[in-house]
Amino acid sequence: MRRLPEPPLQLIVFVVGMSILGAEIAAARLLAPYFGASTIVWANTIGIVLVALSGGYWYGGRLADRNPTREGLYKIVLLSGVLLAAVPFAADPFLGVAVDALDSISAGAFVGSLIGVTFLVATPVFVSGAVAPYALRLAVTGVEEAGTVSGRLYAISTVGSLLGTFTSALLFIPLIGTRRTFIVFGLALVALAAVGLARRRLTLAPAALLVLLALPVGTVKGETEDGAQVIHETNTEYQYARVVQEADGTRSLELNEGEAVHSQRRPGTFLTGNIWDEYMIVPFAAQDRPPERIAILGNAAGTTARAYGHYFPQTRIDGVEIDGELTDIGRKYFDMRAPRLTTHTADARPYLRRTDERYDAIFVDAYRQPYIPFYLATKEFFELARDRLKPGGVVVVNAGHPEGSDKLEKVLSATMASVFETVIRDPSEDTNTLLLGTDGRASAQRMAANAPTLPPDLQPLA
Fold it and tell me: What are the E-state strand segments in 8-166?
């Protein structure tokens, strides 16, 4: 059998660079269902990758000085690819056990994600890091060209890293999922090594990875409360999302590590017995008629929009959600529909800045526990929201917080009070408080006085 040409060193460092950064992006998404996608998780992921790369550079240099051969380089690339492709298969059992163990000692996302990314990604990245100095040793034939050759190889590797970042985040993860993304990058490395080593039995390795790529990935996070089941899950452009259905038919939308429910639909009713019901009545603390137009910033799967469409069908609703796939989930699994609902795939603050509409009520439900988008909690944001209100309009913020802690609520209340003449609170749940800001008058007594004018289902809430 005729041997294929050996892969050029430039191609090897390009593919390895692409795989390292692609794996880094995929690793953060792999941890998200268990530890979230906060800055802490990203910091741990980037930090461990850099430490592993540094170690790999050092060790690769030592190996190259001992006995630099093409075969040795191909073996390193092969090992790197196999380890990378194995990551998703080690992730499920390890992360499941790790989360339970860490919960038992009350360890948080920092410790959990640090251990997770170290166990899963450090070794493949360490091995991949050894490739660049080893390839450089093979490429340099004389001291007079060392600078040019090393600069060229590291530039090519960096371009590969850039491509790996974008293909992982924008192409592979949204289209084929996080687990298959690891297999794709592992397959690229294994195929490259198999061509270089030119051994017939090694062709089985890429073939095996292709088979794994075609297999169903199964449920990423299948554990639920007793009697519940996961009926849909996906890795969106922004996060991991799943729909859980309980035995009575109640459906809930969970994101990332599932610390909070972001939308809910109960069969046979438009109410949930949860925080979303409060949005129906809170505006009546400052207004004596149903809102003509509202904006929901953080619409998720449309629980509030659906209820408003039922109880106040004349209200025009702008549902703003940065993750368009959640809107699709809302339509398919949560019956998200309303006579005058318009959905917008946009970030909340840029949407408010661009819109010319004026609202009777702006609902801010974008504070994902346990994360708060800082740019939606500033004085400048609330000034922008105030400028998009009609006279007498209200801004209502869902301040989710740990049970027994009111620190976030106090900080948000103080910030809102620097913008609005009136700020009142509705501590409807142990972990959720609605804060209402307006330049008009607002009080619980006014809401109670308006209660008889509300639909019968809503009157007990007021």
Answer: none
